[in-house]
Design brief:
Number of strands of chain B: 6
Structural class of chain A: alpha/beta
Shape of chain A: globular
Oligomer: heterodimer
Strand order of the largest sheet of chain A: 3-2-4-5
Number of helices of chain A: 8
Order of helices and strands of chain A: EHEHHEHEHEEEHHH
CATH class of chain B: Alpha Beta
Distance between the termini of chain B: 21 Å
CATH topology of chain B: Rossmann fold
Largest interface: A-B, 13 and 16 residues
Low-confidence stretches of chain B: none
CATH architecture of the largest domain in chain A: 3-Layer(aba) Sandwich
CATH topology of the largest domain in chain A: Rossmann fold
Number of domains of chain B: 1
Order of helices and strands of chain B: EEEHEHEHEHH
CATH architecture of chain B: 3-Layer(aba) Sandwich
């Protein structure tokens, strides 16, 4: 899932200062699971802003809303049916960067400001702690590397390792980090699949990282590609 | 049924013309049904005296208390909030009170950020037999609220 953390309160407060009617919109998917922008976090931020702005004597109205996924246009259109979006002076999005931008696209007459910093694609290591596992490089090599991503888990992102900086299973960049390539070796060895590590992986195709990337499903291509005809 | 509202305590300072209403804080006690609520009940049975500033909200376990609940109480005008759970190691749900401890610490930080002050919130560990512990907790939070002054958000709402 996409992992995000909440921005410092003072930064959010500065972003909404001067506005009287504020709508805070949470997202029910990734950022809900990583306790950054779900229903409870929306309620917490709303309370904090009501207290802080109330103590300063500002007469503000702060409303709360949550959509299933802010990165889907359909859910944002539904939001417009539940809330009168023209009522608000500013919309605070508690979604990842993608959600903030789509909310801004759908309601482009209103300033949409982010309340979160999107940090990475990762997994939950335990309650309250998340760790990065994928850089969405567009060229997955996990099948060759024992399901351990060298791009993410190796600070150097080496496709063929370990490098000479590996010391007793630790990384020279940060001795607290385990060497990803030693972990890959150990896992492949345990699976009896060690011949994979002797395979040299070709240099990364960095062109696939061209931004902004677009992914099209094969079955839907004709809708988006001009010379693709169904009949 | 018509509700009776408590009259504020009157203190005479200087002369008859200067009658000042003493600030009576509103304190919300979010307490667990197994330990602190039993202690509060026992305090009543023992006729222990404590300020009439406290309103009790009973939870099945302090582990159920969300940071959002605590902030909502302040938003609606509470001058202080006390969270009362079982003593460490005696929670009926093993570690609900430890979770509450983490959340209260986080909520204190959030309150500090708003400018209201983190000291308006505190976690207490009060066993079912510790009626004096409950009384002390109420007194402590009443003193703190009086020292820090009223939460003006409550005044705006009357």
């Amino acid at each position: 899932m996409i992992v995000a953390t909440r921005k410092p309160f003072t930064e959010i407060k500065d972003l909404v200062s001067g506005h009287r009617k504020i709508l805070i919109v949470g997202c029910g998917t990734c950022v809900s699971v990583c306790l950054a922008g779900g229903e409870i976090e929306v309620s917490i931020l709303a309370s904090q802003l009501r207290i802080a702005l109330g103590l300063e004597g500002d007469d503000v109205q702060i409303d709360e809303a949550i959509v299933e996924r802010q990165c889907n246009r359909e859910f944002l259109v539904l939001l417009g049916k539940k809330k009168n979006m023209t009522d608000y002076d500013v919309i605070v999005s508690m979604a990842c960067g993608a959600g903030v931008q789509l909310l801004g696209d759908v309601y482009d007459q209103k300033p949409v400001v982010p309340a979160l910093n999107t940090v990475f694609i990762g997994i939950e290591e335990g309650p309250g702690i998340w760790a990065e596992r994928c850089q969405s490089c567009g060229n997955c090599v996990l099948g060759e590397t024992g399901d351990i991503c060298p791009i993410t888990m190796c600070p150097k992102g080496l496709l063929n390792g370990p490098c000479s900086g590996s010391r007793h299973g630790r990384c020279e960049v940060n001795p607290e980090i385990e060497c990803a390539w030693v972990k890959i070796y150990d896992r492949l060895a345990a699976r009896g699949d060690l011949e994979r590590i002797s395979k040299v992986l070709p240099p990364r195709k960095n062109s696939r990282r061209a931004h902004p990337a677009v992914a099209t499903h094969e079955a839907y291509k004709r809708r988006f590609v001009k010379d693709e005809k169904i009949v | 049924m018509e509700q009776q509202t408590a009259q504020p305590e009157m203190t005479v300072i200087g002369g008859v013309d200067e009658i000042v209403e003493e600030f009576q804080p509103k304190i919300e006690a979010m307490i667990c049904t197994y330990c602190t609520y039993a202690a509060a009940d026992l305090a009543g049975s023992q006729r222990l005296q404590y300020p009439p500033t406290v309103k009790i909200v009973k939870y099945p376990c302090t582990g159920r208390i969300s940071v959002a609940h605590i902030l909502k109480a302040f938003e609606l005008g509470a001058d202080a909030v006390l969270v009362g759970g079982c003593e460490v190691g005696t929670c009926h749900f093993i570690e609900g009170n430890l979770r509450a401890t983490e959340r209260v610490a986080y909520a204190k930080k959030l309150l500090e950020e708003t400018g209201l002050g983190g000291d308006r919130l505190e976690m207490f560990y009060i066993s079912a037999s510790d009626s004096h512990g409950f009384v002390n907790a109420v007194n402590e939070m009443t003193d703190r609220a009086k020292k820090m002054g009223p939460n003006f958000l409550g005044q705006a709402r009357g």
